[in-house]
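Example noted here:
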Amino acid sequence: MKKFVYIILILAIGALAYYGTKEPSGRLEKNEEDQHAVSGMSEKLAGDYNEAGLTLYVNGSEVEEDEYKPYVSNNLHLMMPLKMLKDKMKCTYIEYVNGSIVIKRNEGVARLVLDSQDAELDGKDVKIADAPIKKDDETFVPIEYIADTLDYTCEYNYDTGRVSLQKVGEDSKLPAAYDMRKEGRVTEVRDQGDSGTCWAFASLAALETTLMPDEKLQFSVDNMTMNNGFGVEQFEGGQYRMSIAYLASWKGPVLEKDDPYGDDKTNSKLKAVKHLQEAEIIDDKNLKAVKEAVYTKGGVETAIYSDMIDADSSSEYYNEETHAYYYDGSEGINHDVVIVGWDDNYSKNNFNKAPKKDGAFICKNSWGTEFGEDGYFYISYYDAHICETSVVYTRLEGADNYDKIYQSDKLGWVGVLGFDQEDAYFANVYTAGKSEELKADKMLRILYEYFIEDASRLTNECVEMIYMGEDPKTVVCDYIAGMTDNYAIETFKSIYIPKSWKV
């Protein structure tokens, strides 16, 4: 039996060498029978590897979410979902309707085509053994071929199922200039009119970019401003906390076509078409973090001071010829916009009053296309308020992901009002539907007992923590607590739900 396994291993290595390298000159031609045999062996091995499962590590940290997991192709190459590259490797990508895919990180650019082995890596035309494909509505790419272009090393061990992606160098090599407009990552510029709804236009415009270019949707401002629960009239204005509260409560977003703007009415019975699962708040004028967010995640909502109210306004702080704005006074914020790009070399001389250095963000406004550069303008890095507080909506899921939401603070931040202390204590009691809380409790208890019984079943990192003296109970609890809902369920299934026998 051992000899048989050894022979299979040798064949597997041979198959990897053949498919992962160029044909050497003078190599004997394989006949059709030989090709069929190798192909059959590769498919069998790929099936075995995928059934056993792969464990993905990015920069030393295990990626547990199933949505990011790679799989082994029939050619024995690793296929990785595009969204993993964006969320875990800080890449940006665009999928065009013609099947073209452009992936960027730092200065590296990979150009691929769905179902095609033709590729361009850092400007050089190459052939790849596995073409990008659609699988379960997700796009997968051959990570081994493009990892180097994206400044990553890719290592994997099929015996252990461990896949490791490790960045080379620092993440700070952002391009000197970037513009989401050129990448097909923005929706149309809209006009808020006389209403104080800039905050909602900015929030939803930023939200829309997180779906681009995969999905192009236009969300309803009326629904956000008239159904948020705060009781604020449209002319009174608002801010990003109200947006997050509305979205986190799954009151929206809803589509613009179902609740159009400016008709003085709304439909409060509409259901959210997407569920916001995560938003990231960037404080303290962290320009680098804002750039990274724009490059890899989506448009960033931010607030500025403006003494203009529409496209027909003028200001001593705004250069109408260059579409450049710079305010260095002490007035407070009063207008929300969306950062969609930047230019480190944008001349300080483009502003009416020159800031101390070059550099500007590209911002999308909500005053129609008659304002600025077709609705966009430049604002200096050294503006008094730009990026003081910024928001990027980082995780937006389909509305069919969950059917219930449990939370206590549906207006967001309200729970902290009135405490005037660093610490506060509170308690909530939630009544779950039917027996769902009992099912969840039972599943978690079973998982806990399973890992406590044999700590070697944990990850290597957890085992090492126990070896170094950490309380096993604490390690197991932390490990389970770190699981996503889907991962916990899949782990439970893999352990306790019997699989059919194979003969």
